[in-house]
Amino acid sequence: MGRLFVIDLEGLVYSCKHCQTHFAVTNDIISKSFHCKHGRAYLFDNVVNVTVGEKEHRVMLTGWHTVADIFCVSCGSLVGWKYEIAYDKSQKYKEGKFIIERFKVLGPDGGGYDMNHDEPMTGSDEE
Amino acid sequence: MENGLWEVLGSKGLLKKHEFIRILVQCLYSLGFKNSASCLEIESNISCKSADYESLEKRVLSGDWDSCVAVLDRIFDHSKDDTRNTAVYLVFKQCLLEYLKRGDVSLALNVLRKQAPMLRMGKEKIHRLACDIVYSKEMESGEVDSCLVQGLRKKLLVELEKLIPLPIVIPKRRLEHLVETAVMDQIDSCLYHNSWDAVSLYKDHCCGRDQIPSETVQILMAHKNEVWFVQFSNSGKYLATASSDCTAIIWKVLDDSKVELKHTLESHQNPVSFVSWSPDDTKLLTCGNAEVLKLWDVDTGVLRHTFGNNNTGFTVSSCAWFPDSTRLVCGSSDPERGIVMWDTDGNEIKAWRGTRIPKVVDLAVTPDGESMITVFSDKEIRILNLETKVERVIPEEQPITSLSISGDGKFFIVNLSCQEIHLWDLAGEWKLPLKFSGHRQSKYVIRSCFGGLDSSFIASGSEDSQVYIWNLKNAKPLEVLSGHSMTVNCVSWNPKNPRMLASASDDQTIRIWGPGKPNKPEN
To answer: Which PROSITE patterns match (chain A) (predicted)?
Structure first.
């Protein structure tokens, strides 16, 4: 309660690095193999406590998409983006799903993320 | 008779002229205009009482029982169905009663032996009839009084009237009833209807926006930051507001509906987001979602008690009173703190704790103190009957941000973060809620409330800085009130003044709304 309405999640939760607002649970991870300029990013099925920004067209490694940035509802920091439309048939599965940049959140164990200490990136890439 | 009595009236030809005239005559008689009524009877050649009824009436009042039964037979078309039998039974009962009171025992016995079989009653029914009479109240008083007998006969007539079919007897005050039905239908479709005054018969009833609050009449500026909560006291004489400036303010509502500041309650260290008036309006509770629960005296503005262990700082998101104004219950915004019931001295009476209890978003107690409604952060509404301990769960699909109960305690509304307001019944008969939408809500806790005559309206705040009002009959808003410059967080409708509404906004002000200008110019 109290002005800003913040939803609390149960289980293994990813939360905002700055204000610990809950965003998503590990069960909702569809893929961990996405990347952004800050390193790894995860594709989530469902995300809470974010506000969705304006829709934009962006070119990703996998082609043109219409996306909207998502921001933490408490502190306003940029957390990732939401796929609104994918123009390639093979990318349609991402529509309506969310990308959260690993760098912007604390993992379920409360740990942060440092791109420099990460393994070299392989596998299906993005962005 | 070329009187056109079999004509029809009305633009659709649905009304029978002779019936219309008959109920007019009945109406004149019931209003006391005997002369006019009998004049009309003569002029139209339609009498209020049918010939059969007049005949029956004469016979009953003169005690001519045999002819009575004959008339009844004629009325019921010689059928032997149950209604006819009941009517004849009543006549016999009266007849026997009179004979016995007069002392004519042999005559009575005669009736029982010979006439009763006509009724097709079994032996045991005849015995019961005899018993009924002998033990009846009327037998106790000793005197045979002709006044008493006439009185009893008139009563019999009234009972018989209930059994006789139309059109021999017509229901009393038929015209009045028909007109009232039409007026009630008009009131039903009147969306702005907000008072119980009598309506005019000269035109079809339809209220305008001057019946509900829709114009700003006062702006209250005293808080130094966003105002998150507003609520009128149960008596409608006070108003309480809570703000992120860490204070709550008690205002007084004057006789001319103007509002003035009475007390500023300062003690909280964090924003206050919720207040609750005790049912007798002498005490006020304040709390916030990161703040403890405090009890204040309304008259003096003095802090009476702070609840919870000062070390652990039990933060309370929402609280409610029981009808005795001594017991209160509060829900915690810390997970696992649960729900606790206290008395006003600070003693804990009961608690629902445990790791399974999630954060309490909002809670309320019904005005009769029987049920407690809780909204947990997992989208469930739980209604617990405190007597029977039976709990009912209503699952919602979207997160709920606030809860509000109607004045009569029969309904409650919840605001959902998907921009809908759902109305549920407390009794649990509805499978689905009534839904209202049109306002904006996505990030913040927006509150709504019931209001107006018989709680027939709902008002809600909105993130587009407007106040929305719905009539319960329509899912779309009836009125949208502009004025605030930022999100309207909470609204409260004065429970004793259906034309007064208050709203609290992030723009640090509280607006008082009053009746609007009528939408049509007066004739």
So the answer is: YIPPEE (PS51792)
